[in-house]
Design a protein that fits this description.
- The chain is an alpha/beta fold and 242 residues long.
- The chain has 6 helices and 12 strands.
- Helix 2 runs parallel beside helix 3.
């Protein structure tokens, strides 16, 4: 059944609502839905879905009536926050999509020494809006009612200065494996992933000065788009709901 995220549309039992223009276009022109078809709506504010029936439809407007409300409890008890170094191309799109499916709560793009990613403030804002749309689309597909939050990019220093319950830094040169550390009943874990060129010596020193935990995932070096997905799956298995 089609799921739609409606952030700014009030959703209430037995209410009739007109879907926003973009959603109406998608339902009417792309999916070619018909009268009587059912939709699952969610607003990202409550752990529930609103089951709605299409009661009027044309090429520009779709009117639905909310017939029932279902509680949804599929959020992981573990809050995973990824700090991901900026990468070129659509790699970050893939990271966001798969991380959403894996139950990650938030992602913050990081600006590091080896980041070859220079954009104006205006273009970066548009990229953040694009990334949030990717997260919303992935939430619609995966059944989540709370889309993953995409934060504004920040420097590695700013990221490390934030309050983290547990902050794990992936470093292929670390002598500590993830399987060798055990976190006692963690509620929140932050994962820090470097760029394709890795962290510099100065950045690793910065990490050590902050007493963050550097770890490696075995003897093979993972690509920057593979590491966060692997980490999220492992942490969900160890401490989450897998």
């Amino acid at each position: 059944m089609t799921r739609l995220y409606l952030q700014d549309t009030p959703l209430k039992q037995d209410e009739c609502i007109t879907l926003p223009s973009e959603a109406s276009h998608y339902i009417a022109r792309v999916l070619r839905a018909k009268l009587g078809d059912m939709l699952h709506l969610f607003d990202g504010k409550n752990p529930q879905e609103y089951i709605a029936e299409i009661i009027d439809i044309n090429k520009k407007v779709v009117l639905v009536k909310i017939n029932s409300i279902h509680k949804v409890e599929n959020e992981s008890p573990l809050s995973i926050h990824i700090g991901q170094a900026l990468v070129k191309g659509d790699k970050l799109d893939t990271i966001i999509q798969k991380s959403t499916e894996l139950g990650v709560k938030a992602l913050t793009p990081l600006i590091t020494e080896h980041c070859d990613y220079k954009l104006t403030k205006e273009r970066m804002l548009k990229k953040c809006q694009h990334w949030q749309k990717i997260a919303i689309s992935a939430a619609e597909q995966s059944g989540r009612v709370f889309p993953m939050q995409i934060n504004e990019p920040c420097t590695l220093q700013t990221w490390l200065d934030q309050k983290h319950q547990h902050c794990l830094i992936l470093d292929p040169h670390s002598k500590t494996c993830l399987k060798n550390i055990r976190l006692q009943n963690p509620d929140q874990i932050s994962i820090t992933i470097g760029p394709e060129g890795g962290f510099t010596t100065q950045e690793i020193q910065m990490v050590q000065d902050k007493n963050a935990t550097t770890i490696q995932l075995g003897s093979r070096i993972l690509r920057t788009e593979t590491a966060p997905i692997a980490m999220a799956a492992i942490l969900q298995s160890l401490y989450g709901d897998f």
